[in-house]
Amino acid sequence: MTPLTRGAAALALAALALSAPVTSAQAAGTGPLRAVGIENQYADVIAQVGGAHVQVEAIEIDPNTDPHSFEASPKIARALAGADLVVLNGLGYDDWAEKMLAAAANPARQDINVQHLLKLGDDTPNPHLWYDPGTMPAVAHAVAEALAAKDPAHAAEFRANAKVFDAALDRWRQAIAAFRSAYPGTPVAVTEPVANYLVAALGAKVMTPAALELAAMNDTDPAPQDVAAQEELFADKAVKVFLYNRQVTDDLTRSFLDMAKRHGIPVVGVYETMPQPGFTYQRWMEATTAAITAAVAQGTSTERLVPGQ
Amino acid sequence: MIAGIFASSWVAGSIVAVLAGVIGFFVVLRGSVFAAHALPLGAFPAVAAARLWGLDLLATVLAFSVLGAAVVAALSRRTRRDIATALWLVLMLGAGELILSRLQGYSRAVYGLFFGQLLGVTPADLHMIAGVGAVAVVLVLIAFRPLLLSGLSADLAAVAGVPAGLLDLVFLTLVALAAAAALPAVGALLAFSLMVGPASAARMVCDRPLPGLALSVALALATVWGALLLASATGWPVGFFVGVAGLGLYVAGRLAGRGYAPLRR
Amino acid sequence: MLGLLPVGFLDSAPVQHALVIGGFAAVVAALVGVPTLLRGQAFVTDALAHVSSAGGALAPLIGINALGGFVLMSLAAALGLEAAPPRQRAERDLQTGAVFGAGLGVAALFLYLDVTLPGGSGNAVGVLFGSVFLLGASDILPAALAGGAALALLALYLRPMLLASLDPDLAAVQGVRLRRVGLAHLAALTLAIGLAAMTVGAVLSTALLVAPAAAALVLTDRPARALMLAAGLGLAGMWGGILMAWQSYVWTAGHAWPASFCIVAVLIGLNLAATLGRGLWRLGRRGAA
Amino acid sequence: MTGAPDAALALRVEDLSVSVGGRRVLAQVSFTLAPGELCGLIGANGSGNTTLLRSLLGFVAPSGGTIRLGGDGARRLGYLPQKVSVDPFMPLRARDVVALGLDGHRLGLPLPSRQRRARVDAALAAVSAEAFADRRIGTLSGGQQQRVFIAHALVRRPQLLLLDEPLASLDPSSATEIATLLRRISRDTGIAVLMSAHEINTLVPVMDRVIYLAGGRAAAGPVAEVIRSDVLSRLYGHHIDVLDVHGRILVVPAPGAGHDHTHVTRVP
Questions:
Q1: Residue-level pLDDT at D123
Q2: pLDDT value of residue B207
Q3: Which residues contact B74 (CB under 8 A, 6 or more apart)?
Q4: Once rounded to an integer, what is the mean pLDDT over residues B232-238?
């Protein structure tokens, strides 16, 4: 054995010794529970339900890139491995997290995959589930149950918090209902299908060619005919509002933004993650809905959501 | 400090390192660096196709990689190898984009192929990596001497009766196998870094092939383990440290080689 | 001739911009491709194109546009390569590979930061698959500047580049400054990749540089003719690809094929046709002799 | 093409004709080579040197004639191709290169054995390369590398050693050294050596026989019988002068006979 191979062998042994599987650092009953929301909107819901008894961490703060082309760090792996509860979106939107949770299997940890919670098939085309008014109440209740199982002493508090959260969404639901009755069948244009669940709830119609939305979302080339169709929507003022993904912009989406502005179509910014600081999930959704209403009613643009509006 | 890095990541990283060290040694010796970059990345349409038609991912990636190896080996007899490789690569990336555009729904997962998730390696992945990796390493060790001889001189290999075309195909297939095994863990782009850096330093330090091979493997292992430790300490992704270490090893090799091997002759 | 084109093709603004800017990009890339292949640098081309992903990922972090980040990063990589140029081709490939790997490692870091830090907007990897139909009037100026600079470098340094690719020692004896020529070539290459990346995306830009130039070098040995042929083939590939992408909308009922794929496919088709045609012609001549 | 063994001869070539790509490169070439003989194969570029060697190796199929190898009939050939260029960073010592000559075509890892080592040492000793046996091949000089490659070809104990331009890239003193070395090897071991060259004078002191190729045809025999004005004139088809200038041979075409195949051997 040369000194070199001996050194390598020693290193290997050391690595193996250090690589014992990580178990939850959290012994039941001591200190706050630890939870992770892969996207910060889920982290916000966990925080609202868990209150002071849960310490929450968010991973994706601002995905201004494709989360798939990013490699998670040991810091993230550590957070996931040590968590008592993880909420992820599913539908391939955060499949790196799915992989990592599978790699760090831990029976003591509760994983809430929102796709599975809502019983959605893998072929569901739009992963931006949080824009659906039905999603977060279900998530909040599931989170409450999961936390209650971990920390039975505070179970009642968690369930009450979930009810409070659900009730706090009433203002948003009322705004949606008001829009539905005031502006039925409003035509809208979009870049990606980010807020399409909200558009559907508002009773509005997405006029953008579906192939174009997919091309923008998946970074493939759009067809010139589809680009032209979208341009026509703006030029003919065939849409009342243009929903623009603030966080993932490229040449395609920027050119649409320019076009919409040129033709005086009001623009509303929509987000992949919850804008911070100053927003809660409820405030964010209310602000978005208010911005769409203002756009349709008064033709005002809200390109960037600002808290307190 | 190690908390947060799973045993399966250590094991997967170590297997990929051994594989990359062995295959990379011959990649460097035979000057097949470009092929080692293009073959893994040429699996891009395979990932998209597997999703579109619901095929088994590993089988599709393997099929595409081996097909790529065959095409590059065949084309490089007609035209220069680097050109054949470049054209194959862009055709595959273009085809990947075509297949991607046929997919409905959120399908950006295919880009995961570029960077991989060493920390997301599951036990099932581990079996696959170990299986494919073992096959590739055994094949390399079987073809050790012919690969060495034809790396030294294609003419001398031909005289000794080594079938150059077949050997070339076998070697490119081995590179493709190694790439397929490494994809889920370190991704197409960093598998390549792991093949080039350690091997290029090893051949400068060692005068003999077997110790050179052993050093290449040892350096690759050190790279992966070091990258995991540093990533754990800093919270940055593993791939960053692997890529930078690859360049560092190459530069160190160049400096070590300057003493005795004439660059200009 | 124009009557053969599909209805609405030439009237569409995206098509017009694509034909003009894409055509210009294809010609510049094909011209730069000829000395690039003669210098045996197909791999360098591909590596610089891929390293750009680091620039694309950096751009949102420091608040510049993606193309700027892309050119910045591949220029840095090019300078790194030229800092210590080795003589043998195998050695150059290795060096390229090492720089390439480091560039991608840096890209991994930037992409990680893009997702986990609050920051500006921008699609970090979108630039890797650009689209020719998104070019607009505002792209004409940057395209003209990058292309013009690449062509100027080419015009100034073409002869020393060819001589240096033929025999570096001979070139050195004739007073050619190899370092300067190498740097000029890499600068022209980076600009051409940037320009090509605007049209087909960074990872496919290699096609615009390699395919026409390789076909031209199969068809002729003379540099001047090769340059002209390459430019013609590049233009034909770009325009043919644009037409194919437009028509595919009809073929597959509303689901067009990506323009980048079409352009790459036509370019590689032309390359194969050139190689096969040359082979058949040689065979025919041998038969006649 | 290999016929019955011919014990007395290492190689017998009769009426060998070879066409490459429809062009006749060799026409009815005949010669013999006995064990222990060193034979020079002289001819200008394109006169068929490499084609002749490649057809002896079986890489090119002859269109006519026979090639018979002597001895036990096994094709025990050693070959050194023209200009083996070595990557300076190849992690192989001179010794490893020679070992690859012994079993480089075999599968599996090379297991160290006393016998293997002895044969490699013997081959290295035969070319007097012991001094740099453990040095990296890329760091050796051209002449030293050529010795190692000759050992690489010798280590399998061929009956016939074919070398394509082994002296071409060497300086005059190294060339003379290698030529003398080959002479010694053929004498000591009984191996027949056939080596091609552009230049005749380095070989004159060492070769037993010469094959002079011009226009696809050959004149073969002892040097004194071939390098003569009448023989070469017949071969070329026009008048050729063979001059002896201070012990150096000059092959000069007659004035006005500006034919394609004229060939002036370079005087160093």
A1: 92
A2: 87
A3: none
A4: 86
* Chain B nearest CA to A156, separation (Å): 32
**C55 touches C105 (CB < 8 A):** no
Cβ separation of A228 and C256 shorter than 8 Å?
no
Reported confidence tier of residue D260, pLDDT bands at 50, 70, 90: very low
pLDDT band at C250; cut points 50, 70, 90: confident
Total count of domains within chain B? 1
Under a CB-based contact definition with an 8 Å cutoff, are residues A271 and A194 in contact?
A: yes
Chain C stretch 210-269, residues whose beta carbon is closer than 8 A to a beta carbon of chain A: 245-246, 248-249, 254-256, 258-261
CATH number at residue B195: 1.10.3470.10
* Contact of chains A and B by CB distance (3 or more pairs under 8 angstroms): yes
Mutate to test the interface with C, among D19, D24, D89, D90 (most CBs of C within 10 A): D89
- pLDDT higher for A298 or C250? A298
For the domain bounded by A8-167, which CATH number is listed? 3.40.50.1980
- How close does chain C come to B229, measured CA to CA in Å? 16
Assess whether pLDDT exceeds 60 at residue A267: yes
Is B4's CB within 8 Å of A81's CB?
Answer: yes
* ipTM attached to this prediction: 0.81
Non-local (6+) Cβ contacts of D224 within 8 A are none
Q: Which of residues 126-145 of D touch B (CB under 8 A)?
A: 134-139
Whether chain D lies against chain A with 3 or more Cβ pairs closer than 8 A is no
User: pLDDT tier at A28 (50, 70, 90 boundaries)?
Assistant: very low
Q: Among partner residues B9, B107, B228, which is closest to A218 by beta-carbon distance?
A: B107
In a domain, B263, yes or no: no
Q: Are A56 and A50 in contact (CB under 8 A)?
A: yes
Rounded to whole angstroms, the Cα distance separating A215 from A229 reads 14
Q: A181-298 maps to which CATH number? A: 3.40.50.1980
Q: pLDDT at position D44, please?
A: 77
Check CB contact under 8 Å for C246 and A224: yes
Domain assignment present for B262: no
- Model-level pTM? 0.84
Q: CA gyration radius for chain C?
A: 20
Q: What is the structure's pLDDT at B106? A: 67
B1-18 pLDDT, tens digit per residue, is 454 567 788 888 999 999
Q: Please report residues of C whose CB lies closer than 8 A to that of A220.
A: 129, 258
Write down the domain spans for chain A: 8-167, 181-298
pLDDT in tens, A49-86: 999 999 999 988 776 665 556 778 888 888 888 899 99
Token code pair at residue A275: 């804008």
End-to-end CA distance of chain B: 49
Task: State the pLDDT at residue A10.
Answer: 47
pLDDT at A296 over 90: yes
Measure the CA angle with vertex A250, ends A244 and A256; round to 5°: 50
What average pLDDT score do residues D198-227 get? 85
Mean pLDDT of all residues in chain C?
Answer: 84
DSSP string over D194-230: EEEES-STTTTTT-SEEEEEETTEEEEEEHHHHSSHH
Cα distance between residue A5 and residue A12, in whole Å: 10
Which of A274-283, B180-189, D177-186 shows the lowest per-residue confidence on average (mean pLDDT)? Answer: B180-189
Please check whether residue B239 touches A, CB under 8 A: yes
Residues of B in contact with C108 (CB under 8 A): 115, 189-190, 237, 239-240, 243
Contact predicate C78/C190, CB 8 Å: yes
Domains of chain C: 2-202 (1.10.3470.10)
Q: What is the DSSP string of C24-91?
A: HHHHHHHHHHHHHHHTT-HHHHHHHHHHHHHHHHHHHHHT--HHHHHHHHHHHHHHHHHHS--SSHHH
Q: Which domain holds residue B85?
A: 2-256
